[in-house]
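Handout, section B. The chain below has 233 residues.
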Amino acid sequence: MLVAAAVCPCPPLLVPEVAAGAAPELDAARDACADALGVLAASRPDLLVVVGPAQEGGTFRQGSAGTFAGFGVDLSVRLGAGEPGARPLPASLAVGAWLLERAGWADAPVQGLAVAEGLKPEQCAAAGEELAAKAGRVALLVMGDGSACRTLKAPGYLDERAAAFDRAAAQALGTADITTLAGLDVALAHELKAAGRAPWQVLAGAAGDAALAGRLLHDDAPYGVGYFVAVWS
């Protein structure tokens, strides 16, 4: 059963070594993520699953390794203690692993789930239900960004629909509104380059009848991309 969840953004820039001179610009987001992980630890989970978007879906066992070499930084991370698997972590899960290492996570075993960005809502819901059934007390660290079309300099340029999409998503994440999250429009999310859509819908599926309460800790778009931090408990 899902007992807690933390929702965090997943840009590699969240890692100070990657951001370099721009690192202070995301200090508030990093602090909010640290607070969110504290909520996960306090929930005393039997299992933590890190969920994030990727080009291809797949599962990752504890100890799986990731690297930020592709972003010009010689930095590796591990998804908890254990032998690394054959496949490297996708970027979103590597950022999640970095957050866990930064927090000194040792409260429960860790697994990873990469969610294909085009996964249909009903498939996301089913994946979430499977995660919630993995242990008696399951916590999720859900990685994902909002629209990347908030400003003219955003990665996806300015789209007038982006602000409203992010506003609705942030409100749903902050209130644990699984109905709204489950109903996010797949085509619109794709057009707005909102990588968090599928992981958020996995979260909605995992929450089911758990009746968790939500709280929004951070909502900003410093690079024209929506970055949200929320906790469900």
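Note. The radius of gyration is 16 Å. Compare this with the example in section A.
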